[in-house]
Task: inverse folding
């Protein structure tokens, strides 16, 4: 179930990154990781730590809340 | 990248919030561990900020202790709006709750009569004054 969640977190990251008009490489550069790492985050293949999420959200000019709350709403309706 | 390996202030604060909330609802570390599918030692490490929680794990933890994830995140992101006065009380409470015996003291305070509460406050102020601290 955590994998589904990592996927949802990653999908939402992709949305936010596109809204910000950034490439995976540009975002990666902002937070000192490779574009491949961003790709893995977005695909839910690698888990994102909260400190990293904080940096990514800041780099995208958004907030953790904006990133996570839509997912939380969906997940709270399901049984965790 | 280094910050991906060593835990940070953020991990400590998250852990503290998790612990505070768990104690607030009277949940044991064992029970939380069970809900998260980890050992209670792992919960201990999360709460101390020794081990890092992935965002998804924090997600489950927030559901397990029934606290919105936004409350975990509050104030973690630099450059975000300053918390309003009501919200900033959270940091005082965070500090308070991290002290040993504070939860038991808080329970006493809640159960006490208004008169007893006033006496407890007066005593605390007086003792602090004797310690040379600002009351």
Result:
């Amino acid at each position: 179930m955590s994998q589904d969640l990592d996927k949802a977190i990653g999908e939402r990251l992709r949305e936010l990154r596109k809204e910000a008009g950034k490439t995976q490489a540009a975002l990666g550069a902002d937070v000192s990781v490779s574009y491949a790492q961003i790709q893995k985050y977005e695909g839910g293949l690698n888990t994102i730590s909260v400190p990293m999420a904080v940096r990514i959200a800041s780099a995208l000019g958004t907030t953790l809340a904006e990133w996570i709350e839509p997912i939380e709403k969906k997940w709270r309706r399901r049984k965790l | 990248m280094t910050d991906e390996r060593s835990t940070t202030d953020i991990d400590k604060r998250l852990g503290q919030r998790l612990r505070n909330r768990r104690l607030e609802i009277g949940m044991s570390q064992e029970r939380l561990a069970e809900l998260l599918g980890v050992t209670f030692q792992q919960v201990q490490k999360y709460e101390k900020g020794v081990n890092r929680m992935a965002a998804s794990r924090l997600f489950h933890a927030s559901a397990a202790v029934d606290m919105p994830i936004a409350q975990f995140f509050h104030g973690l992101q630099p450059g975000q709006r300053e918390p309003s006065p009501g919200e900033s009380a959270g940091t005082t409470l965070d500090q308070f709750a991290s002290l040993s015996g504070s939860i038991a003291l808080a329970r006493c305070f809640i159960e006490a009569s208004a008169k007893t509460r006033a006496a407890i406050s007066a005593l605390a102020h007086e003792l602090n004054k004797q310690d040379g601290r600002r009351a």
Summary: Chain A touches chain B through 28 residues (CB under 8 Å). The mean pLDDT of chain A is 90.
